[in-house]
Each structure stands twice: as C-alpha cells, then as structure tokens.
Specification:
The chain is an all-beta fold. It has one domain. Helices cover about 0% and strands about 40% of the residues. The chain is built from no helices and twelve strands. The strands form two sheets. It has a seven-stranded mixed β-sheet, with no helix packed on it. A five-stranded mixed β-sheet has the order 2-4-6-9-12, with no helix packed on it. It is globular and about 40 Å long. The chain starts with 7 loop residues before the first strand and ends with a strand.
C-alpha cells in the first residue's frame, strides 16, 4: 500500500491560496455561499493540482482562478464546457490565448466539473471539464 493523502476540502470562503506543498493532492470545492478567488502558487516545474466540484447541487457561485501574476504567468490549454440545461446539452471547447490569459473564471459549477493544472516552471497548463447551466460557464482573461 503506497502513501495516501487526504484531499484538501476547500473551505467556504471568498479567497483560497493553493499551497505548493499540496501538489498532487485533490482539492474539493463545496457548494459556496459567495464567489471564491483562488490564487495558484508561484509556478515550479512539476506542480500539479486537480480541482473537483463536490457540492450536493449546482452551485450559484463562481470560481475565479488566478496565476498570481498578470500576463507574465499565464494559462496554456483550455477546458470543455457542457451546458447542462441546454435542450441538446451543448458542448464547446474554451481556450486560453496561450500568451497572457492569467485568469480562468468558472461560472456556477455543477457535478462533473474537474480542472487539472500542471506547471512547467513558467506557466500553468490547464485541461478539464466545466459543467454548468450557464451558457458561457468558462472564460479566460487577463487579470
């Protein structure tokens, strides 16, 4: 039996700073009572995080994930968004610009929302799925 780490259960708060020492540890977000701003640690080669939505119903609040540095540390990649209340369950890919987008906003996450983040030492690669009743539930932007 190998080492096991308990997941980080993110508290219901308006801010959360991801710790470098929690690399590789699952982070579970609850059904929040307010939007949460999540700040990633300074990039280090090999840092890896997985964020799950773990609420009992679709959240009415948003996740705003920031790299901690406007434009000089940014997201590379994207996420798939599924609009769960669309008549035909629309699915779309949403990409960062790969050169300056240092903020990812996830609007009203629902069950199935999973984000994976990996640092190459300079920036953050992102991949995952955002499930939401919002038609534009995932958006990249500069801070």
């Amino acid at each position: 039996m190998g080492l096991r780490f308990n997941p980080v259960i993110v508290t219901d708060a308006t801010t959360y700073s991801v710790k470098a020492y929690n690399s590789g540890v699952l982070h579970i977000f609850p059904d929040l009572t307010a939007d949460i701003t999540v700040t990633l640690p300074t990039p280090e080669d090999g840092l890896t995080y997985e964020f799950w939505y773990g609420g009992a119903a679709a959240d009415a609040q948003d996740w705003i994930i920031k790299t901690g540095s406007d434009n000089s540390v940014y997201f590379i990649g994207g996420v798939v968004h599924m609009d769960e209340d669309a008549a035909d369950a629309e699915v779309a890919s949403v990409y960062s610009d790969g050169n300056s987008n240092s903020q990812l906003t996830v609007l009203t996450p629902a069950s199935g929302t999973v984000l994976k983040l990996h640092s190459n030492g300079s920036n953050w690669y992102v991949n995952g799925m955002v499930v939401s009743a919002s038609a534009a539930a995932a958006a990249f932007a500069d801070q």
